[in-house]
UniProtKB/TrEMBL annotation:
The lineage of its organism: Eukaryota, Metazoa, Chordata, Craniata, Vertebrata. SMART domains: IG, IGv. Coiled coil: none annotated. PANTHER family: MYELIN P0 RELATED, MYELIN PROTEIN ZERO-LIKE PROTEIN 2. Its main location: membrane. GO terms for cellular component: plasma membrane. It holds the Pfam family V-set. Keywords: Disulfide bond, Glycoprotein, Immunoglobulin domain, Membrane, Signal, Transmembrane, Transmembrane helix. It is found in: Membrane. One of its GO terms (biological process) is cell-cell adhesion. This is Myelin protein zero like 2.
């Protein structure tokens, strides 16, 4: 009886240690943080995660929404083995699953944006035994037109520079073409002038010879 106590005590101690360490392995959520989209368009709310445990049938995904102007939190989307769309409310027939669990992606697409869709969208993933972790949030701003960011200005500058280089190359090629054409025309004229000059000289020689013979 006493001989079995040390192994049992060791197992209990190991169990306590595992229980203490297990909560550290929590689900981590990754989102864009902030997003801007044009009114009337569709937008993809991207949410990915990492988990200590392998993805199984127990995994659940919950999307909720809190309006920017305040108010209660609203249900947007739920996934557990299959997607569950909202049956009523503002998001009815406007949200679809666009995730890929093989890539740890639990994103959704929101159709036909409206100005009152402004607010914070939260993405929560539970993958038992990993059920703890922070909730991902995306602050969506629905605007009339997308504001140009530094990336857009950089892309515009690069595109303009490339277009300018193409125009310069075309101008150089055209100029060289016309120069070659002029040189060819000049060479052709010179070739035409030379025979005429030779004929004139020959004619003068003939006249001089004839005059000499007459004398």
């Amino acid at each position: 009886m006493y001989g079995q106590s040390p192994p049992r005590a060791a197992l209990l101690l190991l169990g306590f240690q595992l229980a203490a360490l297990w909560p550290i392995a929590a689900v981590e959520i990754y989102t864009s943080g902030a997003l801007e989209a044009v009114n009337g368009t569709d937008v993809r709310l991207k949410c990915t995660f990492s988990s200590f445990a392998p993805v199984g049938d127990a995994l659940t995904v919950t999307w909720n929404f809190r309006p920017r102007d305040g108010g209660p939190e609203q249900f947007v989307f739920y996934y557990h083995m299959d997607p569950f769309k909202p049956m009523s409310g503002r998001f009815k027939d406007r949200v679809v699953w666009d995730g890929n669990l093989d890539r740890y992606d639990v994103s959704i697409i929101l159709w036909k944006l409206q100005f009152d869709d402004n607010g914070t969208y939260t993405c929560q993933v539970k993958n038992p035994p990993d059920v703890d972790g922070l909730i991902g949030a995306i602050r969506l701003s629905v605007v009339q037109t997308v504001q140009f960011s530094e990336i857009y200005f950089l892309a515009l500058a690069i595109g303009s520079a490339c277009a300018l280089m193409v125009i310069i190359v075309i101008v150089v090629v055209v100029v060289q073409h016309f120069r070659k054409k002029r040189w060819a025309e000049r060479a052709h004229r010179v070739m035409e002038i030379k025979p005429s000059e030779e004929e004139r000289l020959n004619q003068e020689k003939k006249i001089s010879v004839s005059l000499e013979d007459t004398h």
